[in-house]
Amino acid sequence: MKNIFDRKITSKFLYTVLVAFSVASCSSPKSADESIPASETDGNEQRGQLASWQDEPRDRIMDWVTSATTEGNSGFIPIADRIAVFDNDGTLWSEQPIYFQLAFAIDEVKRMAPEHPEWKKNASIKALIEGDMDKFLSGGQNALVEALAITHSGMSVEEFDSHVKAWMNTATHPKSGKHYNEMIYQPMLELLDYLRANDFKTFIVSGGGIDFMRAWTEEAYGIPPYQVVGSQLGLSYVDSLAMPELIKTPELYFNDDKAGKPVGIYRHIGKRPVFAGGNSDGDYQMLQYTSTGEGSRFGLIVHHTDSVREVAYDRDSHIGQLNKGLDDAAKYNWLVVDMQKDWKVVYPFEMGNP
Amino acid sequence: MKNIFDRKITSKFLYTVLVAFSVASCSSPKSADESIPASETDGNEQRGQLASWQDEPRDRIMDWVTSATTEGNSGFIPIADRIAVFDNDGTLWSEQPIYFQLAFAIDEVKRMAPEHPEWKKNASIKALIEGDMDKFLSGGQNALVEALAITHSGMSVEEFDSHVKAWMNTATHPKSGKHYNEMIYQPMLELLDYLRANDFKTFIVSGGGIDFMRAWTEEAYGIPPYQVVGSQLGLSYVDSLAMPELIKTPELYFNDDKAGKPVGIYRHIGKRPVFAGGNSDGDYQMLQYTSTGEGSRFGLIVHHTDSVREVAYDRDSHIGQLNKGLDDAAKYNWLVVDMQKDWKVVYPFEMGNP
Questions:
Q1: Which residue of B has its CA nearest to A215?
Q2: By a Cβ cutoff of 8 Å, what residues of chain B touch chain A?
């Protein structure tokens, strides 16, 4: 995805926000038995076999992994180098009609407003608090960035983490009615498990906010916080308290998007990955960096082709635009996954309750 | 340690550099049978029992770990939260008479000079190249920072990595005559293995350069690159080549020292550690951040008291100064390890060849 703190968000994107939120904002508590079971890092048999993938893409993935894990094979990769990186929005979970983190920010402005009378000094935020979405959006990119900044800073990292977790347990998606962390892709969960069962380390490398993701990625994907790379705001150590805290501050510290992704990968991981999965041109450089290293490599693009089970979009989309990636997929031998044809199911909830 | 890119290096420190390098700069190739075996991440029995520790500190560490890993115990810590962080210079390996990374930079200036005639435009660097250490040091902090910058940037991350590895295999310490990666602390290797055997994740959190450490920490400590946090220079993705590369650039991007350590920890790990080890006031905030979290915590300070086997220094030292840490050790219940009394051996090479 594009970094959502980036101020260069198009007006068409703003329109999408408007449409989305004219039908959204319905929240309901999530009962315990609806909760998603934690992803099993040791892999269960079904996921381990990439059961939700059709034969052709599954065989291509499995052939490559078999080659990478067979000693003596020309494609063999030592365990220490088995680094797999995945974008998050549009690659591991959905990103339409708006990035879920932006939905969080908008919900949070409304929820937190009573504690922050000073927020109404900003006309756009005042409009949002008062439910006037038209006026909020007329504030343009600055209004959205302001909504993100005030809900993502001015508190300790622990407080922010608890805000994200609470939102994830209550807010629901305007189209599916599901909790956002239920809108993860079953075939990608299987792929993560399959790679881990073959001694790959799996990392998220996303334009989304690192702290926003870390609040739920371990439960959803089996990926611990120290294997999550993302965009970052400021962070300040405050020791004037009995319990010293790290306080989030609003400046953009690192933009983990486009050419920032290889940089973020090296800063956090310190190795060139051998496997990369993405879905948009924001992932182009991460895929390119991965695929042009020496030795055996695998690149994968999730192509959003399914207008029934999910949303169909690519070259002309203002969220998750995929243009250059499609053009160069053959050149770099990237597997372009056709969601409609290649995935037997999209979301775990389609599989029914066990 | 103090961040070595920091320009606020005292003149006394410069004097130390001078003394050190009047006797240093002897390099010899390291033969294969001299090489240090890789640290075993699964732990061998001897290290697993903290064999090089005297009874008192060993019992205190083991009692805490037993409590942290015993379900039902009030000090129990779930596996996902067993995060242990360690400073590097002066905590896992020696740092006297000068930070080893600075020794690397000085050696590298001399080695690389023939490829860089432009370096002689800087009078201090010219003096260093021509062997005039007095004149080089008269350039003060700026001269040292310049030596670091030119040897740590202007090349791909892979090239830099190969430079560090080559230096580590040839350069030797002016006092011990050993390769620098042989001057790691045997009791700390045992502690790392012991914690890992008890399902702790071990991380390095150092003021030293992240890329400099990653070149050798996996072999020396069993700590992979993605578990190393350190100070960072700039990084730029260059895709105008057949094989796109990350190029190191000279600006200071992140200073992983003092209050920067809790920040670096959160940016990379995303959790508050439960165990921290350090040796200087540069580690104070990391130890404080760790020790003031909720639940069971362990903080450890390596106190350099051994003038025979290593170097004795603390409150007045300009390398690894330990002042506030000693004052507040009791307040935070930090274990102050007396190297002379508490460690049966300091370096692995004291144990003889097996």
A1: B270
A2: 80, 83, 157, 201, 203, 210-211, 214, 218, 224-228, 232, 235-237, 239, 242-244, 246, 259-260, 262-263, 266-271, 285, 288-289, 292-294
Q: At B197, is the pLDDT very low, low, confident or very high (cuts 50, 70, 90)?
A: very high
Which amino acid, residue A332?
A: Y
- Measured between beta carbons, the chain A residues lying within 8 angstroms of B226 are 83, 201, 203, 226-227, 268-271
Distance CA A172, CA A40 (A): 24
B134-B138-B143 Cα angle (round to 5): 105
Q: What is the ipTM of this complex?
A: 0.88
Q: Where are chain B's structural domains? A: 8-25+98-154, 35-95+184-231+253-350
> Can you say whether residue B98 is alpha, beta or left, with left for phi > 0 and alpha for psi between -120 and 50 degrees?
beta
Q: Which is the CATH superfamily of the domain at A35-95+184-231+253-350?
A: HAD superfamily/HAD-like (3.40.50.1000)
List of chain A residues whose C-beta atoms are within 8 Å of the C-beta of residue B288: 239, 244
Distance of CA A32 to the CA centre of its chain: 24
CA distance B258 to B264: 10
Q: What pLDDT, on a 0 to 100 scale, did the predictor assign at position A15?
A: 44
Q: Which residue has the tokens 């001078």?
A: B18
Please give the Cα distance from B329 to A223 (Å, whole number). Answer: 35
- Does the distance separating the beta carbons of B267 and A236 come in below 8 Å? no
